[in-house]
Design a protein that fits this description.
Elements: H1 12-16, H2 20-34, E1 41-45, H3 51-59, E2 62-67, H4 70-79, E3 85-88, E4 100-105, H5 115-128, E5 129-140, H6 142-149, E6 153-157, E7 163-172, E8 177-187, E9 193-203, H7 207-216, E10 219-226, E11 239-246
Helix pairs in contact: 2-3
Length: 249
């Protein structure tokens, strides 16, 4: 994970096209629907530039943001109020000062963890969650890896044309992993462009793996939903949201 999202951190929000208001409303709804007691302190693991962290703080949650990328976290610090604690840590092995009501991890952050890393993350979440605390995260589905990523290429450009991102996918079904090769072209004042390259890897996790690993780490899966919906994922859903409760003796 380390070293990913360093090149594109400054323009991530421009190119991602994420509807933060909709995501915040959705996560807020899940927290309220599935919490045994009202959630107060919430950890946003792999918070990135902090847009969702800040939006959930506006809704009324006490937020902590955590990310391994110093560049992404620097952008979050500029955006988030100073009362939001931001931690530059690895989501596979993080440390908090106490327990939290809920942990969220959005926008397929768990796909950046291999099988061992995902298990470490779930275990760490269980350690720092209150009894009956919630873990809410989403993953890109097997359908997306096979039919959307595959060997496809994408071009993303911001509104001003100052930045262009060339994104090439290489999905390996045997390894259940997809290598992203990213090339960012940024326009200089003289009209020339500077190119910066970065590679990222996402791992395809099956529903069976996610459920069995969560159970081993002390979680009960309360619900699985399709992308930003209140119904189960369909065979062609590109994203699945998991809502889980920490079981503590």
């Amino acid at each position: 994970m380390n070293g990913q999202y360093e090149v594109i951190s400054e323009i991530y929000d421009e190119l991602s096209g994420v509807d933060t208001d909709r995501w915040a409303e959705y996560i807020d709804g899940l927290l309220k629907k599935h919490s045994v007691t009202p959630c107060e302190l919430v950890l946003d693991a792999a918070c990135g530039t902090g847009k969702l962290t800040a939006k959930l703080a506006e809704v009324g949650y006490d937020m902590i943001g955590l990310d391994i990328s110093y560049s992404m976290l620097s952008a979050a610090r500029e955006r988030c109020p100073m009362n939001i604690l931001l931690l530059n840590q690895d989501m596979r092995d993080f440390e908090l000062y106490g327990t939290v009501s809920a942990v969220i991890s959005c926008l397929d952050s768990v796909n950046y963890l291999d099988s061992n890393g995902a298990a470490k993350f779930f275990s760490c979440c269980h350690l720092y969650l209150d009894p009956d605390g919630l873990l809410i995260f989403d993953i890109n589905t097997e359908y997306k890896f096979e039919n959307v990523y595959g060997e496809n290429d994408f071009i993303l450009e911001n509104d001003t044309g100052e930045h262009l991102l060339a994104w090439s996918c290489g999905y390996d079904p045997s390894k259940k992993s997809c290598l992203f090769s990213l090339s960012l072209f940024s326009q200089n004042k003289n009209g020339t462009y500077t190119r910066e390259d970065e590679q990222q890897t996402e791992y395809c996790h099956s529903d069976d793996f996610i459920r069995s690993t969560l159970e081993k780490c002390g979680f009960e899966v309360l619900a699985v939903y399709g992308e930003l919906s209140d119904t189960a994922p369909s065979p062609t859903s590109q994203r699945a949201h998991y809502v889980c409760r920490a079981i503590k003796g």
